[in-house]
C-alpha cells in the first residue's frame, strides 16, 4: 500500500528504511522524500514507525523504558567541544 502518493513510497519501503536505521519521519524523508511535498503522509509514517516498523534503535529504546531511553539517547550525543577561552571566543 502506498504511504506517500507524491513520491510513490510504499509501507514496505518505509519499513526497509526503518530497518536501515531511519527511526523518525524526518529520517524517512531524507531517505525517500516521503512527507516532503504535501505532508499528508507524515502521520501515516509516524504510525508505522510507532508500531515498530523494524527500527533497531527504537526496539532497544522501547526495551529500556523511559529512564533508560533518556540515558541511552544522552550517551549517543556527541561530546561537547571544549570551552573556548575568552580570548578565542572574542
From TrEMBL:
PANTHER family: BACTERIOFERRITIN-ASSOCIATED FERREDOXIN. Residues 2-50 form the BFD-like [2Fe-2S]-binding domain. It holds the Pfam family Fer2_BFD. Keywords: 2Fe-2S, Electron transport, Iron, Iron-sulfur, Metal-binding, Transport. This is Bacterioferritin-associated ferredoxin. Belongs to the Bfd family. One of its GO terms (molecular function) is 2 iron, 2 sulfur cluster binding. Gene3D superfamilies: BFD-like [2Fe-2S]-binding domain. InterPro entries: BFD-associated_ferredoxin, BFD-like_2Fe2S-bd_dom, BFD-like_2Fe2S-bd_dom_sf.
Amino acid at each position: 500500500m502506498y504511504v506517500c502518493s507524491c513520491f510513490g513510497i510504499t509501507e514496505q519501503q518505509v519499513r526497509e528504511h526503518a530497518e536501515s536505521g531511519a527511526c523518525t519521519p524526518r529520517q524517512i524523508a531524507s531517505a525517500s522524500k516521503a512527507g516532503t511535498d504535501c505532508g499528508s503522509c507524515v502521520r501515516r509514517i509516524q504510525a508505522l514507525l510507532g508500531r515498530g516498523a523494524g527500527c533497531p534503535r527504537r526496539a532497544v529504546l522501547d526495551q529500556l523504558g523511559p529512564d533508560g531511553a533518556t540515558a541511552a539517547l544522552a550517551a549517543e550525543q556527541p561530546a561537547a567541544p571544549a570551552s573556548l577561552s575568552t580570548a578565542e571566543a572574542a
